[in-house]
TrEMBL record:
InterPro entries: ABATE, ABATE_dom_sf, Znf_CGNR
Pfam families reported for this sequence: ABATE, zf-CGNR
Name of the featured protein: Zinc finger CGNR domain-containing protein
Every Zinc finger CGNR domain range: 149-191
Record lineage: Bacteria, Bacillati, Actinomycetota, Actinomycetes, Kitasatosporales
Gene source species: Streptomyces canarius
Length: 197
């Protein structure tokens, strides 16, 4: 449950790694919005999107972890965006490959049964564990046939990547409720606007 005033991170891109990329909203637009600015925001993303919380005595999330998460996000974006619609062998420069493999090799969150009998996930290093999950998901995605179904949102400001799981494979927007709805409203305004003359 989100606390009042907390960020509600966008989910629903079809893969964890694609949701992670969406923490930079309106990528490349003048109104670009960074959602991972502080350790608290990275921890909130981990809790909301990975259901991962710090274990007892865990290492605190620091600003350097936020910087590393943002670096990872941009490396992963370059990897995935560069492969849109492609499923051939992944050719990645050695230094980028080394970083991706290092992020993926960190220990992931582990399951923990709480006192109420609910399954929770926790980690001694939440930032490292979350980057491990995200990197593993991205590496799996970029080397799988599912990569053929990764699309860029058709929203003029959005550009988010999403996995098109629709049967015909012709989905245009990352979210019908957001970008798709905005585009339909814009098209309707254009159709119903009086002709200038």
């Amino acid at each position: 449950m989100n606390r009042p005033g907390s960020i509600v991170f966008r989910q629903g891109a079809g893969r964890l790694s694609l949701d992670f990329l969406r923490t930079l909203r309106y990528r490349g637009d003048a109104g670009e919005v960074e959602e991972l600015r502080t350790p608290q925001e990275l921890l909130a993303w981990a809790e909301q999107c990975c259901a991962c919380a710090p274990a007892a005595g865990s290492r605190p999330v620091r600003q350097e972890d936020v910087n590393r998460a943002r670096e990872a996000r941009e490396v992963l974006y370059g990897l995935l965006a560069g492969r849109l619609g492609d499923t051939g062998p992944v050719r990645v420069p050695a230094d980028v490959r080394a970083r991706l493999n290092a992020w993926a090799s960190a220990p992931p969150p582990v399951p923990h049964l709480d006192a109420a009998g609910r399954l929770r996930w926790q980690a001694g290093d939440v930032a490292g564990a979350v980057l491990s999950l995200v990197a593993r998901d991205a590496l799996d995605l970029v080397t799988s046939p599912a990569m053929e179904r990764v699309r860029r949102c058709g929203g003029p400001r959005c550009g988010a990547l999403f996995l098109d799981n629709s049967r015909p494979g012709k989905r245009r927007w990352c979210s019908m409720g957001a970008c798709g709805n905005h585009e339909k409203k814009r098209a309707m305004r254009e159709r119903t606007a009086p002709a200038s003359g």
